[in-house]
Design brief:
The protein has about 250 residues and is an alpha/beta fold. The chain is built from eleven helices and five strands, in the order αααααβββαβαβαααα. The chain has a five-stranded mixed sheet, with helices on both faces. The chain is extended and about 80 Å long.
């Protein structure tokens, strides 16, 4: 009984946080790759055939080419056909940066970010940010986000016809279907970022980065309560920046 002191090890708080972060990374990597199969690769000959058909028939879209390939007995999805088709030049239009600058007073950004707990449970934090004055108007936490829950956050963020004209977010499935139906009556036009392009939502990404650097990187979260209590801390954070920095 007198030897228990020899088993003790003293570590700095930063070391415990680093161990937890590495442990969560290894746990998530193991979970996401467990039983993963994926789609089979498309052969080079089929890729060349799709491109040739698209170039030889500029008026054909992915549905038409997909139908012709099925007639030839080639089993391929329409989505894969669309991905393999060569990109055609589009008419010039305003740049993304110009759009954000022109509508800064009528634009709201929404986004999620995740917070791992001490037991590796994942919490989802939802933020609603007005571009004008960089004001956070909604901040909430859940461990099981749904389209209905997300839509309710938008409804509560903009009561009494205070909704802006545009709503900017990524192409996550949680913003489709039921989410669109619930917020349709608020008359907010949807603006989607391009796939895998977080830079097109720069102010929300900067806010999330500030919350991580100033708060979450220095603690290990136990449950939803500590995160939700930091709502008052997150709101007044000074994450305003020049527009050159934001892009």
């Amino acid at each position: 009984m007198g030897q228990w002191r020899g088993a003790l090890h003293l570590v700095r708080p930063e070391t415990a946080i680093r161990w937890h972060r590495h442990g969560f990374s290894d746990f998530w990597t193991w979970t996401s790759h467990r039983g993963r199969v994926g789609r089979p690769r498309v052969g080079a000959e089929l890729e060349d055939l799709v491109r040739t058909m698209a170039l030889a028939n500029p008026l054909w879209g992915a549905p038409r080419i997909h139908g012709e390939l099925l007639k030839l007995g080639l089993d391929i999805s329409q989505r894969t056909v669309a991905r393999l088709m060569p990109r055609r030049p589009k008419p010039p239009s305003q740049t993304w940066r110009t759009f954000l600058e022109n509508h800064v007073a009528d634009l709201v950004s929404v986004d999620f970010f995740v917070v791992p707990t001490a037991t590796f449970r994942v919490l989802y934090v939802f933020v609603v940010l007005l571009h004008h004055r960089r004001q956070v108007v909604r901040f909430n936490v859940t461990d099981s986000p749904t389209s209905a829950w997300t839509a309710q956050q938008i409804v509560e963020a903009f009561p009494d016809d205070s909704a802006p004209r545009y709503r900017l977010h990524d192409r996550d499935r949680i913003y489709g279907g039921e989410f669109r139906r619930r917020v349709k009556g608020m008359h907010i036009d949807e603006v989607l970022t391009a796939p895998r392009s977080p830079w097109q939502n720069p102010f929300a990404e900067r806010l999330i980065g500030t919350i991580r650097r100033e708060l979450l990187d220095h603690v290990i979260v136990l449950n939803e309560v500590p995160v939700s209590r930091h709502e008052q801390i997150a709101y007044p954070l000074d994450f305003r920046t020049t527009r050159d920095d934001a892009f």
